[in-house]
Amino acid sequence: MTESTTARERTSRRRGPRAPRHRSTSAAQNFAAGFRALGDLAYAGAEVSAKVVDLETERVLVAIDDHIVLPTAGIGTILLLVDVSARITAGEVSGYTVLDRSDPDAVGGSGVWQHLHVPALPVADVAALVAATADGVATNVLLRRVGLDAVRARAESLGLGRLALLDLVRDERGPDDAPQLSVGSASELAWLFRALARRELVDAPTSARVLGWLSLNADLSLVASAFGLDPLSHRGSDHDILLVNKTGSDDGVRAEAGVVRGRAAAVAYAVSVRFEDRTLGSRLRVVDALRTVGYDLLEYVH
After folding, report:
1. List of E strands, the chain
2. Is 139:130 a contact under the CB 8 Å cutoff?
3. Inter-axis angle of helices 123-133 and 204-214, to 10 degrees?
4. To pair with 190 at 20 to 30 A between CA atoms, which of 7, 137, 201, 211?
5. Domain residue ranges in the chain
6. What class is the 3-301 domain?
């Protein structure tokens, strides 16, 4: 599938009839616990968005305010990875091109490069750090190489109107900075992961490379915590469960999107929650709700 075809399909979907705000199918019994858990968060004042789609049939299994745009923290760096992968496929850049880390790239928070002595890494290794550990330094180094404008243009070429990487990774956001690292809708995130899994995002080599990077993700603390996988080693099937995911965490934000395949089925999913992160209890209620969604997914695919 070409970029132009994908963009036309996405545009057509955006212009088509909108789904009801809350919808389930006859498979709702598989996701009743997740509905209740996310509903409880919403009644408590959180903003909740979710989408689950059967990977093979495209059947919508869950849709909860799936078109609203919420902060997604590090999930938006997928767009950066897609653009870098597409450039490697097109021969515009080599995965072995060495990128230097510089002082403006320095940032705390997640990631390991800030703790390493090595001052430069190949493009493909920098991308792997972004996917595996949400590495802020690596993200900034890649963004300096390709530019935010190029990432935005790539998203537009894919027909993505509600998913965007807005800024560099920053320790503090001032009044002149974007208020969030990224934003997105559950609908577009689920579509993106389905396209990746089907090797249809840009083209097959680009999709496969991004999936390879994302398979390194070590954060299984949210939805994926229900799958019983080893956070540091889950690139292959484990008890017939195969997962590729990306998470986003920030103050008052917990989000995850991915693809999980079991012996019975496979789904693309996305869940985002924005909440008042005032106490540990409020945060743990969100984490527990996302884990409950994971248990529902596990029951469906396994």
Report:
1. 22-24, 47-54, 60-64, 70-71, 98-100, 120-122, 164-165, 182-184, 242-250, 253-261, 266-274
2. yes
3. 50
4. 137
5. 3-301
6. alpha beta
